[in-house]
Structures are given as C-alpha cells and as structure tokens.
Amino acid sequence: MKFGKVDNPGAIDFSLPGDDPETAWVLGTNTKGPDFEVYVGCAKWNRTDLQGFYPKGTKDELQYYSRQFNCIELNATFYKMPDWKQVETWKHKTPEGFKFFPKLTNTISHYKRLIEVQSEVETFCNAISNFEDRLGMAFLQVHDNFTPKDLNRLETTLNHFPAGIPLAVEVRNEQWFANRQVNKRFTTLLEAHSFSNIIVDTAGRRDMLHMRLTSPVAFVRFVGANHPTDINRLNDWIGRIKKWRNEGLQKLYFFVHQNVELDSPLLAAHFIRSMNETFGLSLKIPDKAGEQGTLF
User: CB neighbours (10 Å) of residue 200?
Assistant: First the structure.
C-alpha cells in the first residue's frame, strides 16, 4: 500500500491520538462477552509481494497462507467483480476458522462513485455470500476525492446494503475528518446500521487515525513504513486494544500492510505474539519460513 507514504518516516510523530469521546460510549452500550474474537492477517497472499515467506516448493500460496494466518484482507475483489465459482475455489483452499475480508469492487466505489450501484452491490454480495462461514466482513473504500457533499450517495448505498453481509467503510478525503459536524453525520449513519468505521494508521495521513468506533468491532488497517518505528507503533496498538477490550470491544480485525510488503508477515507475527501474551489467546504464530530473517 503506497497510500500515506512519506520520504522520511523517522520524522513522523507516530503516537496514537486519544479516543474520540463517542468511542467509549459505543463500546459501553454493548455487553462484553467472555470471548474476544481476533483476526490478524496481511493484505495479499501472492509470492511476488511476500518474498521469502513461502517455503521452497510451495505449490499453492493461498493454501499455505491460510494455515499461517487466520484471515486475509481480500483486495483482489476490488479489481475484479468476484463470481461464485471463484469464491468457492478460494473457500475450499482454506481451513475451518479462516476468514476473508473482501473489498467492494472499484466499479462500485471508484468508477460509478456510488451512483445507481444497487445492482452491482447485490451481485458482489451474492458472490461473497458463497464464502459462508469463511466470510469475515466486506469493506467499502471510497475514492480519495469522494467528499462529504456526496454523503447522500453513501447513505443510499448503506441504507440498501444487503442484510446479512457485515460491512466496514473507509473514507479518505480530508474533509470527512476536518469538520466535527460532517464526521458526526457520517458516523451516525454507520452506527444506525452497526457498520464499522475503518481506522487507517499510515505515516502521511494521521487524520485517518480517528479512533472513532461505531460498533463493538475495530477494523484497523496498519501501514508500516519499512522502518524501525513499525515495531513500536504495533506495540502501542496493544495498549489501545486492551483499553477498548476493557470498555466492551468484542471483535478486532487487524491487517498489516507495508509500503513494500516484504516484511508484512514478520510484522504480523510480532503483533500476534503480543496479542497472545496480552490477552491469553492462542492465535497461531506464522512459521519462520523460507528465506525471511529478522525485521530491519
């Protein structure tokens, strides 16, 4: 992911901001169950990006990946509308408990810009419903220049989004975060449908680190900078997640990207190890496979 990339990551203040005041209220209105559902993964599974992750002789990348991580942020569906046959092929390669998080196709979000997209949304949702128990949550990422003046389009899309398909939404234009009233209208819309407000932690866009949850589900896209600061940033997230869990967080979906994806599995493994230690979880720590060494 190149979004938010900067030339000198060491000059960025990566400290996490305080929570939006509404976050504690949202979490507090939900009864915290005894189980904490945690999914941590990468954005891609192909060998070209994750160089050194796969042992020599690996024949099927998804099959191997899905036995190292419990989820994948499925960006392939952004570039091409999935069909049920492709979805079933992916599903049958993965073990029980694995989850896909497919991104809505760019025809919907970027080319048609949420104008008269109900047919495309239904086609997309019908296809991904074939993931069945492997479906985690779909997510909609609108174009960088999709601004609050287009909120009515987003509202129409969300109001008619197919029931039974969980959804998270990512807005990117600075105007969504600069005006408190505008942001309130957006987050109220998400809350009304129990949709999740995606948080993006990336160097060049600290405003997207809004810390405003709209449901008891935290959907975080962490973008490492291929820099030693990546480890401390992940460590800081552990503390924030612990706070949210105490306040009522039920589910965490955390996806590790990098500007150059090479070290994403190692970063994710570090985060998983820390989550296991902090919360008493038993998430699998990916094997130290192939030619990967130590971070930085």
Answer: 23
For residue 149, the one-letter residue type is K
Q: Judge contact between 84 and 126, C-beta under 8 A.
A: yes
What SS3 class is residue 249? coil
Using DSSP's 3-state secondary structure scheme, residue 140 falls into strand
Distance CA 66, CA 56 (A): 17
Strand intervals (E) in 181-216: 196-197, 199-201
Is residue 40 within 8 A of residue 72, CB to CB? The reply is: no
Write down the domain spans for the chain: 9-279
Encode pLDDT of 216-225 as tens digits. Answer: 999 999 999 9
| Cα atoms in the Cβ-side hemisphere of radius 13 Å centred on 164 | 9
pTM: 0.95
CB 169 within 8 A of CB 195: yes
Of 36, 45, 108, which is closest to residue 73 (Cα–Cα)? Answer: 45
> Tens digits of per-residue pLDDT, 41-88?
999 898 888 878 999 899 999 999 999 999 999 999 999 999 999 999
Q: 9-279: which CATH number, 3.40.630.10, 3.20.20.410, 3.30.1160.10, 3.40.50.300? A: 3.20.20.410
How do beta strands 251-258 and 199-201 pair? unpaired
Please state, in angstroms and rounded to a whole number, the distance separating the CA atoms of residues 279 and 255.
18
Backbone phi and psi for residue 72, each to the nearest 5 degrees, phi listed first:
-145, 135
